[in-house]
Amino acid sequence: MFKKMLLLAVAVFCLGNTSCDLIPSDNQFSYNVPFQLSVNEVMASNDGKLQVVFLEVVNDSRCPEDVVCITAGNAEIRVGVETPDTQLEITLNSTDGPREQSVNSWVIRLIELHPQTRSDLQIKPEDYRLTLQVEN
Question: What domains are there in the chain, each with its CATH number?
Answer without folding.
Answer: 2-135 (2.60.98)
